Amino acid sequence: MPYKKPVSVLVVIHSPNLEILLLERAAHPGYWQSVTGSQEDDEALIETAVREVGEETGIAISAADLRDWQQINTYEIFPEWRHRYAPGVTQNTEHVFSLEVPRDADIRTAPGEHLGHCWLPLTEAAAKVFSWSNRDAILQLALQPHPDSATQSQ
């Protein structure tokens, strides 16, 4: 099995009312997160985000549905997951995206990857995730301009 690239995406999925979709990791019950995943081969990051949303939630989207924050986080890969990467790789570079979907979107989590999902208010979701970068992105979501609100104020 080839090594994973130490380049990934984080996609914060939210409702129009900023309720956050979280997924519970199958390998670590009690570890909640937004959609995440590693870039494969020569895939563009936006394509990675589209693919991961589909794989992890069953939601079919296009690149135009995503909002690229142009934000990069670098963090240390947990020791328990380093075997997935080439020897000596200890840092991952994560690119942040968000996706707005209706609260009643049909979510179908990947059985081998996630135990289930939940929708939580923004601050509760930020407190529940295990990753600092996921927490910070959720909290920053409240500060992001939303295209719908901009057109309503004109």
UniProtKB/TrEMBL annotation:
PROSITE patterns assigned: NUDIX, NUDIX_BOX
Transmembrane segments: none
UniProt cross-references to SUPFAM superfamilies, sorted A to Z: Nudix
EC number: 3.6.1.67
Record keywords, A-Z: Hydrolase, Magnesium, Metal-binding
Residues involved in substrate binding: K4, R25, T36, S131
Cofactor: how bound: Binds 1 Mg(2+) ion per subunit.
CDD domains given in the database record: NUDIX_DHNTPase_like
Gene3D superfamilies with a match to the protein in the record: Nucleoside Triphosphate Pyrophosphohydrolase
Entry binding sites for Mg(2+): E52, E56, E113
GO BP terms, alphabetized: folic acid biosynthetic process
Domain Nudix hydrolase: 2-144
GO molecular function: dATP diphosphatase activity; dihydroneopterin triphosphate pyrophosphohydrolase activity; metal ion binding
Cofactor or coenzyme needed: Mg(2+)
InterPro entries noted in UniProt: DHNTPase (IPR003564), NUDIX_hydrolase-like_dom_sf (IPR015797), NUDIX_hydrolase_CS (IPR020084), NUDIX_hydrolase_dom (IPR000086)
Cross-referenced NCBIfam families: PRK09438.1
UniProt name for this protein: Dihydroneopterin triphosphate diphosphatase
Name of the gene encoding the protein in the UniProt record: nudB
